[in-house]
Structures are given as structure tokens and as C-alpha cells.
Amino acid sequence: MRNRIVSANSCYYVQEGREPFPRGLTCVRGAGYLANTMSFAGPSTPTLVPAGVSEALVSRQVPVGTGIDPAGYFQTLSRTLAPMRWWPARTPFEVIVGAILTQNTSWSNVEKAIVNLRRSGLLTPRAIDRVSTARLERLIQPSGYFRQKTRKLKAFVAFLRNKHGGSLARMFRTSTLRLREQLLSVHGIGPETADSILLYAGGHASFVVDAYTHRILGRHGYPQRKPDYEAVQKLMESSLARDAKIYNEFHAQLVHVGKHWCRTREPRCHECPLLPHLPADSPFRPGATPANEAVEERRV
């Protein structure tokens, strides 16, 4: 039986086999809905299905020819990890600022810059639009590349003002595909930043692909000579129900795996919850001949 990840009214269930309704299961609402509250018994692999929803209407098939099962990964990580509760921000605009500032730097550096902006009362589109370039550069300096990022922040708020009357609510009422195209036309916003804004700030179902995702899939045998954002995004979205909450949690889980186990150097595959999904012939399996740098560079 293939893995299927589905949702209904933000309520997620674990179901054994092909029973039409779940029995003795816990419904968890909000971020980290699966976490450690799931329970089931029996030898079969549990499938996530909402009560009363036909599988035929919500199923997502495992992509053929890739050897990658995103739904299975999500199921495993949801049973293993605590709720991610990502993105850490107080407002949608703070998410957007963070998505721009986090380019080419660590989140700890972004946090310092955001604290500076908050203390200065500059975490609104109008404030960023009006503040001088020199002052904004000083405040976001901890995030690195502060001159380029100042220009990017200014470009975004100008876009918001000119295209959507300065209203985030109006902007996020735009259809996902159209808004994604608009965001990609803004200076300094590429696919990953655009999808982060759509998903985490706007609640649009647009899966975020980052370096952690590429690295994990590459080590699991995903056939790509170089990172292909659109191909990986299509792989993920074709394997999961189109649900922003699922995309949110799964992307955050992959980031967690990349930071703690699937590290660039000295990966800790023997401790990783995704070890059962690692191909049997993978050089990253415990006891296998260590993967050389050439193999990793070709795959990641």
C-alpha cells in the first residue's frame, strides 16, 4: 500500500490498512499536528487519512523512477520528531523580512538583524519604505551582505506599494501561481525566497526547496547532476496533498534533518530517522565504504 498524506480541516489521522474510518486515533490541530501523539498497532504501514474522505479524491502517488518517497519521509519524520513550529516570526511581514535576510547566512545572524529592526519599530512595510538606506544597512548588518539585502527589502516594499496598495492581505489574496510570478519579478527574490513568502507568510501551498532538501535527496539517490529547484518541487508536490500545513511541517522537518544528521561534512546517517529510507547500496549507509567527495558533489 502506498503512502498518502492528506488533510481535512487541519485534522490529521493515522489509519491502519484500508479501514474506511480510523479507530482509536488522536486528532491534533495546529502546528506539529502529527508529532508524538500518533498511535497505532499492527504490522502494516500506517497511512494518513482524514475521516470520511475518499482515498481516491486525495491520494498522491509515489513518483515513478525517482526512488524517492516524500510521503513516506514525511510519515517517518512526523512519528519521530517533535513539532517544528516554523517559521519563528510574530507577523507575516516579519516572515518576509526573514526570508530575504536569511539568504547566504545562518538564522542566528538573521535573528540579530530582526531584533534591531523590532527595537527600531521598523518591522512594517511602511517603515521599511520610509527609513533611510544608510540606517537600514546599519540595522541589518549582522545578516551579512547588508547593502544588497537593503536594496532587496526596499524593492519588495516598493513592489507591495505599487502592485498591491501596500497591503499584504490584498497581495496574499492573489492566486498562488500569479503571485509567485510577481514575486519572482522583484529584485533579489528567487524561487526559494518566493516560496518561503508564499508558504510561511501567506499560507499558500507552494513547497520550499532548499540546500538541505537537495542534499538529503541526493544522498538518497535522487538522480540529479546539479540541483534543479523546479524538478524537486514538482516531486514533492506530486507526492503530497496540496496543503500548506503539510508543506510547512515537512519542509521544516527536512531542515532539521539537514542541520542535525544529513550534514555537509561528517553526516550522522546512523542516527538519522530517515535511515530506513536510505537505499541499500548507498555509500552513506553505516558500514558502507565512505562516500568520497566526488560522489557527494555529483549527487547534491
Kindly describe this structure.
The protein folds into three domains: 1-59, no CATH class; 92-201, Orthogonal Bundle (Endonuclease III, domain 1); 215-299, no CATH class. The two termini are 30 Å apart. By secondary structure, it is mainly alpha-helical. The longest helix has 19 residues, at 146-164. It is globular. The chain contains 14 helices and two strands.
The pLDDT mean sits at 80
Question: Which class do the helix and strand fractions yield?
Answer: mainly alpha
How widely separated are the two ends? 30 Å
The neighbouring-strand order within the major sheet is 1-2
Architecture per CATH nomenclature, i.e. the level-2 architecture of the largest domain = Orthogonal Bundle
- As for the CATH topology of the largest domain, it is Endonuclease III, domain 1
Task: Name some characteristics of this structure.
300 residues; mainly alpha; Endonuclease III, domain 1; two-stranded antiparallel ribbon; 2 strands; globular; disordered N terminus; disordered C terminus
